[in-house]
Specification:
There is one protein chain. By secondary structure, the chain is of the alpha+beta class. It is built from 17 helices and eight strands. The strands form three sheets. The chain has a four-stranded antiparallel sheet. It has a two-stranded antiparallel sheet with strand order 5-6. It has a two-stranded antiparallel sheet with strand order 7-8. A hairpin with a 3-residue loop joins strand 1 and strand 2. Helix 7 runs antiparallel to helix 8, helix 7 packs parallel to helix 9 and helix 8 packs across helix 9. The protein starts with 10 loop residues before the first strand and ends in an 8-residue tail after the last helix.
Length: 472
């Protein structure tokens, strides 16, 4: 891939998220995109602020490591752990038959157009929030799977000598997640990362139980990740102000001290209390939403998630997911939102069945469907449904049906949650948790996926396909 993206001289930064290798390019026009798409294992490409090569979970980590090693051999690599999800726009269908090549070309134009639309301060801020939380996802997944496995052992009465150790390993990260959020926040906004972590550590320090603010005794962890985020932002602002004013000879002593003192006091006597109120409101609101309007809420959330991704607004949900996991042990929103991917898979399957004569497009769908089943939807979205137009909308219908299915059971008292964010589709099964036992939780989530597949297929088969073409 390296020569196809312009060689080592064209690489400004290298990073990866759950599914994508993200490259900062000096000259994006130097990319040979057609050849890059043809590389075995490349599921798709997304041209955004960073050039993103979709490789899939697991593979992307190994490829990134090998890519960086190769880059090191040619020149020192510069890494920047940033990134965000891609966006696109709906096309206007025309009357020529689709082909995989035409759809890919049109999808690229859609991405370029949406990239310009997304260059707003609000969406840039959301991307920066995502940059803070996305690096934490691997730890959330690992600890979430261990917590689920440990729960199975405890419920079955197996290995009682090791379950306390597994519980400690699985819970330690969540107990200190505020520190990591503070570290990443300061790093993202130009402060000293360790100072951001130091200020955020105040939130989880057991000694805060001796502090009273607004007549209320504080609790360790009060405010959670939101308090840590606010504390690190304030600390970064204080640090930058000090560096502008303090003489260079005193900077090494004065700036860290003032940063930790001012931001720490503000955290104890204001931010923890306020962030705790917001965090509690998020948990209460999510419980109320699903227990009282579960089917309708699931319909809306499952149906609108693909458009939210298209507009880049889904990134606002990352702190909410993390807050729910921190509070309740799982996020009840992610399984519902994952139904959007099920609708997408069903829609792609309908396109495959209906367009029997289009061998190139059917080949694209065959190669992308396994990834779609595992929750990697970009190849299907950008290579099939979005360029075709109508299948994107009928995929949303499938997602709405799956979300309504899961939401209905929430109204009946069956909560389905995920102990980590990132995976979806079949990849979410190992991370499922709920209030009625693993068997019921898996059955409800599986039923939602099946509903999304079937409704997405039926809606696309009946209404989503006509002989469309791509505008020139």
């Amino acid at each position: 891939m390296l020569p196809l993206v312009g060689g080592a001289a064209n690489i400004a930064s290298v990073a990866h998220c759950m599914t994508r290798l993200r490259l900062g390019l000096a000259d994006p026009s130097a990319v040979d995109e057609a050849a890059l798409r043809a590389v075995p294992g490349v599921l798709g490409v997304v041209a955004d602020d960073t050039y993103q090569i979709v490789l899939g979970p697991g593979v992307v980590g190994r490829v990134t490591e090998a890519f960086e090693d190769l880059l090191q051999q040619q020149r020192p690599a510069t890494t920047d752990r940033t990134g965000h999800l891609a966006t696109a726009d709906l096309p206007a269908p025309t009357d020529q038959p689709p082909t995989a090549e035409r759809l890919a070309s049109h999808g690229e134009r859609l991405r370029s157009r949406q990239k310009r639309h997304n260059a707003t301060p609000a969406k840039a801020a959301l991307r920066r929030v995502a940059n803070i939380f996305v690096p934490l996802i691997p730890a959330l997944i690992g600890c979430g799977i261990l917590a689920g496995f440990n729960g199975l052992l405890v419920n079955a009465g197996l290995l009682p000598g090791i379950t306390p150790a597994l519980a400690a390993i699985a819970s330690a990260f969540m107990a200190l997640i505020a520190v990591f959020v503070g570290y990443n926040t300061a790093k993202e906004f130009g402060g000293t990362p360790v100072l951001g972590g130091a200020v955020a550590a105040v939130v989880v320090y057991p000694g805060v139980a001796g502090v009273t603010a607004f007549g209320v005794t504080l609790s360790p962890g009060q405010g959670g990740v939101l308090g840590a985020l606010a504390a690190a932002l304030l600390g970064t602002w204080v640090e930058k102000g000090c560096r502008r004013r303090v003489p260079a000879a005193l900077d090494v002593l004065v700036t860290p001290t003032v940063t930790v003192l001012v931001a720490g006091l503000a955290t104890l006597y204001g931010l923890m209390y306020a962030a705790g109120a917001v965090s509690s409101a998020i948990g209460t609101a999510s419980d109320w939403l699903l227990t009282t309007t579960g089917a309708f809420a699931g319909l809306i959330l499952g149906g609108l998630f693909l458009p939210l991704v298209m507009l880049g607004l889904h990134q606002a949900l990352i702190p909410i997911h993390t807050t729910l996991i921190e509070q309740q042990g799982y996020t009840v929103l992610l399984p519902i939102l994952a139904m959007a991917g099920a609708g997408q898979v069903g829609a792609a399957a309908a396109v495959y069945v209906r367009l029997r004569a289009d061998t190139s497009l059917r080949t694209t769908i065959r190669s992308a469907l396994p990834a779609g089943l595992l929750g990697v939807g970009e190849p299907l979205i950008y290579g099939v449904s979005l360029p075709l137009g109508r299948p994107f909308l009928t995929a949303c219908v499938g997602g709405a049906a799956g979300g309504a299915f899961v939401g209905l059971f929430a109204m009946l008292g069956v909560k389905v949650g995920a102990t980590a964010i990132g995976p979806s589709g079949w990849a979410l099964f190992p991370l499922l948790a709920g209030n009625r036992g693993l068997g019921v939780t898996v059955a409800v989530y599986g039923g939602g996926l099946l509903t999304g597949y079937l409704v997405g297929f039926a809606a696309t088969y009946a209404f989503g396909l006509r002989r469309t073409t791509l505008s020139s």
